[in-house]
Amino acid sequence: MLVYQVLLSCVALFFGSLTGVLVKRVPKNQDFVFSRSKCPQCDYQLKWYENIPLISYLFLFAKCSNCKTKIPYFYPAIELFFLLACFPFVKITAKRFLFASQFSDYFLILLDFFFFLFFISLSLALGLIDQKYKELPHQLTYIGILLALIYATLFGSEHYAPSVSISETFAFVPSVFLYLFSSIKQFAIVAFVLDISVYFLNLFFFKEDALLDGSPALCFAQEKLLKNQKIVFLAYVLVVLSLVYFSCYHALEIFFVLLGFSYLIFEIFPYLLAKNKIEQDENSNVNKKTVLGGGDVMFVAFMATVIGFKFSFLVFLASFYLAFMFLMFKIIKKYFQFQMQAKTNHEQASPESFDIKAILSGTMPLGLALAISFITAMIVLAK
User: Fold this and answer.
1) How far is CA 101 from CA 96, 97, 129, 160, 251, in A?
2) In terms of pLDDT, which residue wins out, 277 or 141?
3) 349 C-beta neighbours (distance < 10 Å), count
4) Residue 225 neighbours by CB under 8 Å, 6+ apart
5) Residue 86: which of 139, 11, 33, 151 has the closest Cα?
6) What is the pTM of this model?
């Protein structure tokens, strides 16, 4: 079992290195799949043995082998943190290997482990990017959602098990597709509810810019409904027919499955196909946000696709408490710095001169709080 744990830990370290690459390259729209790592100072392309997580950092004495510039401690720090976050999954996977008997068992256990490493890597990268750049790139949230849907289809669990009504209504459909339908439904519920909430919050505070932070799918739907009344009429007819043929619960469940497909068709796939054009367009609403924007909505939807919407809403609420603690820590830190600066300048510091509003302006660290809460939930729910 120890051998398995060591090997799996090495794999986790490489995913930790990937997380650092995502944090550094995604906000700058740089390729993080095919391009090899380079020294940011002298542009020296690292050799394979200079790019081994932790080992290369220690072997090179934390310096570039070419220009001797000091390597930022960010890279080994994130690799170590990632390993600590993944260690419960390492232990669980190593234990499952002991009971495996066939090659297919080893393959499925390892595939399951890789999926969770991807989920932790994406969520941690999103949290750190949001902390530094105040944005949650859709490029990562959408990739996370698609990977989560694939995972839900391959590894069905109680978090997104098909309901009895879906199983009975679509008994002719293979169970693997029922798990896909169920996970799409859970993704759609969270995305739709948060999208509508953001829409009305913006409508209340910004009036004419109510769709500023709405997702592309919501904007598309409203634009089509305003321009084409036939679609509205057809939608009403379909709703009435579904209520007549199915029960209210059946109809609502089918509605959310179709809604989830609409998010995939009108929002995620077009963005991934034209992400470079969207990211370079300064007038695009995709990356704009206030406190709770489209990135946060899709991040929570990504979590719901992995752990189910019941747990995702608990994680969402827990992240607000965690973000509040971050803000309190920041205020206390700034206040002590303010007092120390006043003593250094031999001035009398007054509470009125300490501007809390300036500190809080645009600093809601919700992305990092979501990432930490989500990783914690996955560790707790891991079996």
Assistant:
1) 10, 8, 42, 28, 44
2) 141
3) 15
4) 231, 232
5) 11
6) 0.80
